[in-house]
Sequence to fold (376 residues):
Amino acid sequence: MEVKQILHMNRGEGEFSYYKNSLYQKQVMSMARPIVEEAVAELLHQNLPAADCLRMADMGCSSGPNTLFPLWEIIETIHSTCRTLNLQKAPALQFFLNDLPGNDFNTVFRSLLPNFYDKLEKEKLDKLIGPCFVAAMPGSFHGRLFPDNSLHFVHSSYSLHYLSQVPDGLVSESGEPLNKGDIWFAKTSHPSVRRAYLDQFEKDFSSFLRSRSSEMISGGRMVLTILGSNDHNPSCKYGSQPLQLIGASLKEMVDEGKVEELLLDSCNIPAYYPSAETVGKLIEREGSFSIFRFQEFEITWDANIEDGDKDLIFDKWYRGKHVSNYVRAVAEPMLASHFGAAIMDELFHRFSLKVADCLERGIGLDHNLVISMAKK
Fold:
């Protein structure tokens, strides 16, 4: 099955849906917010362009409570910047929500957008915000989505680590899987497997940059938040310890005869978590963008579990279950398409126990890259 058919979050509003399990992604967006605000404010200060409408896009928007979070950040920044500049009227805003066609856009437009417009109308923000138009733009951000020179601002959070396809070169000439026993590359993987994943990321990220370069105006701004890796922290060296824990859980189930070994050997998750050095080199090589800010930060897997109530206390089993649920909301469509839906409950229960152990030992961390740039 093609990646674009299975690379989507759990739909709807059920227990394991992305709609109900996205507090972690919200925390990441909150931590990147100052950089987004800075980029939007600078765009407005430069008066780019002196036009009646600013066109912006969120690449990989998904379909949860966070989908419109970046848009609200941008609107508040436009409001405060217009007040600083003593402008009497802000430009209209056209905002495109992009994701693959399998994304649950119905939930966004049925459950989220009406409340967003109600909030916008209620607060009015001193009437310094022009009309706001929101539309969906289904399609892969690895290729072109918009006309030339049409976008002023592009945002993407926690999407660019996904690859457009499973990397080539993961099977030998004789047809043997080269990444046996793993669902993704790890420290035990053959160097050729790691190279194949890196090559695919380089192709995809370069294609993303070329496409956005064509679509953005000169001086337009872009802020990307990417789940990355950090060689200096063993917990983040390969960028996604949760994937390795899922792989370890599947190995246990293979040993117990609950999963076919061939299924495990032939599973390769299409994701890559780049280092800051890799991302910086690729941006420089592509040549269309100037980097204004590049920040890195680490965050625990159960960040924002209390959702603002700091007095709440959770034991390690609840924390493990919390992390398991939001990882399941993201990964289940890919895993169920390969291993079957019947094993998902047991798989993610085993995974939750491993997560709880990691959190108790203080090694449950993700490394994040935030890059603010402008088109030359």
